[in-house]
Amino acid sequence: MMDLLEREAVLQDLTGHLRAASVGPGRLALVRGEAGIGKTSVVNRLAQLADPRIRILVGACDPLTAPRPLGPLTDLAPRLGRPVRTALSGALIGTCRPDEVFDSLLADLNSYPSLLVVEDVHWADETTMDLLRYLARRLPSVPALVVATYRDDEIGRTHTVTALLGTLAGYPWVSRHDLTPLSRRAVARLARGHTVDPERLHHVSAGNPFIVTAILNSPEEPIPATVREAVAGRLAGLSAAAREVVDVLAVLGRRAPLPLLADLLPASETALDDAVACGIVRTDGQATEFRHELTRLAVLESVPAACRLRVHRQVLAAMRSGPLAPGDLALLADHAEGAGDPTAVLEYAPDAAAHAAASGAHREAAAQYARALRYADPLPLDRRASLLEGHAQACGLSGRLAEGIASRRTAVELRRTLGDRLREGDDLRLLSCWLWPFGQTDEAGRTGLEAVRVLEALGPSRELARAYLNLCQLACYRHEKARLTTAYAQKAIALGERFGDAGAVVQARFHAAAADMLSNGSGWEECEQAMSDAMAQNLPEDAGFLALVMCWFAALRRDAARTTAAVNRAEAYCLDHDLPSYLLCTRAWGGWGLLGRGLWAQAADTAQGVLGHPGPPPVARALALTVLGLVRARQGKARAWPLLEQAADSVDPGCLLDTGLGWEARVEAAWLGGDLDRVRTEAQRGLDALAGRDHPWLSGPLACWVRRAGGTPRRVPAAGPYALELAGDWAGAAEQWDRLGCAYQGALVRLSGDAPALHQALAAFEALGARPVVARTRAVMRARGVRPVRRGPRAATLANPYRLTVREMDVLKLLHEGMSDAEIAARLYITRKTAGHHVGAVLAKLGVHSRQEAARKLHDPKR
Questions:
Q1: Half-sphere exposure (Cβ direction) of 232: Cα atoms closer than 13 Å
Q2: Does domain 795-857 fall into CATH 1.10.10.10?
Q3: More confident position, 829 or 139
Q4: Which of 283, 330, 634, 651 could form a cystine bridge with 288, CB 3.0-4.6 A?
Q5: Which residue has the higher pLDDT, 470 or 253?
Q6: Can you give 272-332 as a three-state secondary structure string?
Q7: Tens digit of pLDDT for each residue in 688-712?
Q8: CATH top-level class of 8-180
């Protein structure tokens, strides 16, 4: 069952109408939307939310050639009084008039507060339509809410529903509720845990819940069978002329101007009206299009190849004969390829790609460059190199790193063959830039240095400014001494200002400040300002990248509040500017931030969402695997180490170290497993790799783990709470962790404390569901003679199948209502932070990874 998303406002309105109508006067609610939009799901949820004292009556109309007379009333007759059933039986055999049925139903509704649902009114027979007219006029006299649902994509000017709506227009007790397609954010939320690209899912489904569900249930099928069958069912009733219109529109692809359709199919107006009436296509009087891309593809696969070729050629000729707009280029390229015209493909596809890239549509740009490259073999080398460079850039920004890197490598070779040293150097720099998120950090460094060597030989240039910037970034990410990062930054700024490259200047300023921030704590405000400047100067790629890096650096500093704010900001910016590679990395760091805040179930859910996306950047994949492995280790679940090993295998060892998660997670997992020798070995390996680098937030935790395992760490740079712990000030360290919002880290430090600190640590670990460290804490307390406070579970908790407390059951019920942490806090009169802890505890006890899974457990504990 699909979770109801973005239906809260409609449900709130309907429940309000039901509450008011149950005590009179009655109301009529019209719920409308296209096929598959979720009308049935909404009325079913409304019935679930209804007061138990309200009688629920649900009937439906059927798509029959000859609809059943009063079919919906026949469905729900068993729940009605004898007078209604008697009158209905008589009406069906012709022994009494329909108005007698209407009168008896009205009297029945007047005797008991009711919710009467009539579904799919667009298929209703004439008598049912008369019944609705009759009831609508008299509803103010009865304690009932009547809900009628219908498909607004299947009613035309002469449809009986249109006539009914005209009758109801003057009644103030009639309300209208539109169900709209799901947003990108909602579709992405539903796609978590599935190997489906959320952006493509939204594109092909147009946010239709039925299509979204079908794709998620059958991700391996290009067109799910349920969608194919639904489309075939709709097409079956069309005339031959209307079917031809639909076939031609499927070949035309996107929004088709009506004059173009008329040129291809003269006298197609009536046939188009029939196609619109069946709900597959729509028109606004200027153009027509399919409601959903997947529906178009389902139709297209059944169009004969000869027909497709003919239409593509006709459209290509027609469009080339008139004026062209930039928005036509992609369509021209598509028809050129469909028409089998390579010359036309190479004429339009590169321009279409450039237009898409300039508009921020990087997926479309990558697809158009790939189309051009399929026919590029006869082109001169410089044109092929330009296409490869465009393809590489678009792929990098749209999340297809492997393809982009392959194209960039080929472009480097072509530029070298041509002797174009400037372009060769720039391609080397760009290759280096994308090798780092691809996890190949060593090659990224070598390639970056080679780019500078090539470009320095040519003298000052904008390309050299960017090459220096790349080395500045790599030095920062590898946590080299801050002075090295600053030296490269100064060179990049000088050349960036000289050649007018605002992006290079703002990024260099950012990374110079970031190096200081990571080494000595100052510079956060300068980083924020640089990122804000990139946004203000409309530099989306630079700004999106910096927003992502802010998430990383906030997480490295274990600052929960800043990490949350940075992730929210970066996610919104990347969604708005179509930057999926940056978005997935942002979400991976968001998972680490949730882990630090003690929201382990949400962290695991976020990590699963990254891993479920097709082809996440290897760095994002490694981060997500690390988060997931560490959650499992902290909860005492099996198969934590295989996840950590997968993370290590996803990227170069240097990348795992640079990100700051891999080594520390492995050390902690060894400690949780009781393998102290491995703790010291893994931590020492990490410290050895950090020798000569300058990042106290990386070396500090490793030194602390050596100390916790009974070893004596060598003196290394350590930041904030780590420095205090290494100095023996566990209380000061714990206080800093509390201020940072890291309850788990604070509890770990308190294991070195006195009896009250141990009690506090034990309570924190128990609340988090950290079973291995709970056992370890109890062992420490026994060894020190500290008696744990025995708080046995209450009777209600013992009786609960999941050992949920009364308060946790309250939280679970509110999760079932779809409430956020803030809404739960308001309902239960607790803080939002406390609500978050309760939610985390509920998810941990239920053994689930998402709020939706937890909600489903409320009424179905066997799930």
A1: 10
A2: yes
A3: 139
A4: 283
A5: 470
A6: HHHHHHCCCEEECCCEEEECCHHHHHHHHCCCCHHHHHHHHHHHHHHHHCCCCCHHHHHHH
A7: 878 777 788 888 899 999 888 888 8
A8: alpha beta
